[in-house]
Amino acid sequence: MQGISLNYQHNWIVDNLPVAFCYEFYALRRPYCSYTGFPMGYHPESSDDSYPMSARYMKSGFYYPFNHVDLIITYQSGTSEEWDTEFGANLGRIISVKVRPRSINHRDPYNLDCNVNAELLAIPTEPLEQGRKLNITYTYSVTFVRDNSDKWSSRWDYIVDSLPYTKIQWYNILCSLVVVLFLSGMVASIMLRTMHKDIERYNRLDVQQEIFGWVSLHGDVFRPPRYGMLLAVLLGSGIQVFGMALVTFVFAGLGLLSPANRGSLMSCLILSFGFLGTPAGYISARIYKSFGGDQCMISVLLTSTLCPGIVFSLTLAMNAILWIKTSSGAIPISTLFSLLGLWLCGSVPLTLLGAFFGFGKSVLELPVQTNEIPRQIPNKSICMHPISGIVMGGILPFICIYIQLYFALNSIWASQMYDIFGFQFSIFLILVITCSESTILLCYSHLRAEDYRWWWRSFLSSGFTAVYLFGYCCHYFVTKLDVQDVASTILYFGYTLIVVFLFFLMTGTIGFLACLWFIRKVYSHIEVGEKQKISAIYKS
């Protein structure tokens, strides 16, 4: 009876299709099908009240185990179908499998009564007397329903169509689009009005006039940052994660990652990450070469091993806990060796190949030259402090995705259906745009304050969205999950750290590349003569 108290569920699969537990969802007043299973039983004091139960089950002080299930199997007959010409009507394809669990007190196992109004099996909550045994007879009934109106290729639709909170998804997208339009308007105003006027004004300056603002940073804006190798390594891995997410969303949107193919989503993530080692090595090599770095081999090795090694180490540690707990969810050793082989024999050589082409290219063409003597950075207020900018940089991107995070976490930890790839891809694109525009705005504000240290700041301000993501995961753990085991807590936060780390790499890379494009674009519009004029004024 402990399983009933903890709301444990049976998970059945028929013809690679989850058995759906369908009921009337009272919050939305429409049918809802849960593919995650059906409850072991019902207990009025502790069971989940999201699905309606008859008043017969509401007597307190009793457990009602569901020892009888009615299976309704809908199939498509082979009659007049092109896919079967040999067996005809004797062959069919299963379209859906639904279950209705009930509790029946089978007093005589040789004379079963499975009627709808049969007596319920009510077991008192008090412990049984010592030496007494409780025998429960389990039965089932199967009803086959022929339906040629639905096709086998769309047999998952009845589960997807019954998902709740679809209106909330649209509301989230609309709110995110409002944020994107607001940021786009501000960026357009900066690009088309403010900076354009600044450029025109500075192009009309005489040599004797004082230069101030973002144009005065002409000789320092592309000064290489500290720890440039580490930044290049993180950018290469971020490109790899971004490409992995983009490829997976595209394949899922095209219907190539059907939920009927179990494990296809994770396989696509792993394979795309491995084969995208070439662009990771190429971007890392070109950025590091632009910084003037000369330790090429160390940079390439770190790009191919640092971030993937961190993820693999955390996965191995989490899997060790599952092995200790003898869990069936542990990854087999053979699979771990396969992943290790894919990394060392696939991703690493591809990263080396990309770095070879990257170092073979010329240095990134910069629109201005860097002065030998660094410019002094003036004192700034608290709002313009680097830490303040980094913390503010992740707020708007997080606002655009926080509603989707609830459904994503429910899918991972609460076994809820989350198969609306169109919504996910839309939010992904909105996230990319929001990270880019918010980073550009922060970068511009710091440049106007004559602070040219934008390399790390652009990466960290956009990547700080991952910190808010981690905070939301902690909030979800405290408020939505009832985890009391130490091992389960370690597993939750271990896998959460992997997701947060990859998310940090992706969002940070998006913000950095957007800021790099913005700065190269605006400084390329300053006339060559004006650049010399500014340099002369600065030296004088």
Give the structure's gist in a few sentences.
It contains 15 helices and twelve strands. By secondary structure, it is of the alpha+beta class. Mean pLDDT is 81; it is low at 528-540.
Characterization of the model:
It contains 15 helices and 12 strands. The chain is an alpha+beta fold and 540 residues long. A hairpin with a 2-residue loop joins strand 2 (13-14) and strand 3. The radius of gyration is 30 Å and the shape is elongated.
Keywords:
12 strands, 53% helix, alpha+beta, five-stranded mixed β-sheet, disordered C terminus, 540 residues, 10% strand
Distance between the termini: 86 Å
Strand proportion, as a percent range, falls in 5-15%
Element-by-element helix/strand order: HEEEEEEEEEEEEHHHHHHHHHHHHHH
Low-confidence stretches: 528-540
Question: Which percent range fits the helix content?
Answer: 40-55%
Please tell me the overall pLDDT. 81
Largest sheet geometry: 5 strands, mixed
Overall 3D form:
elongated
Number of helices: 15
Counted beta strands: 12
Strand order in the largest sheet? 5-4-10-9-12
As a whole number of angstroms, the C-alpha radius of gyration is: 30 Å
Question: Which class best fits the helix and strand makeup?
Answer: alpha+beta
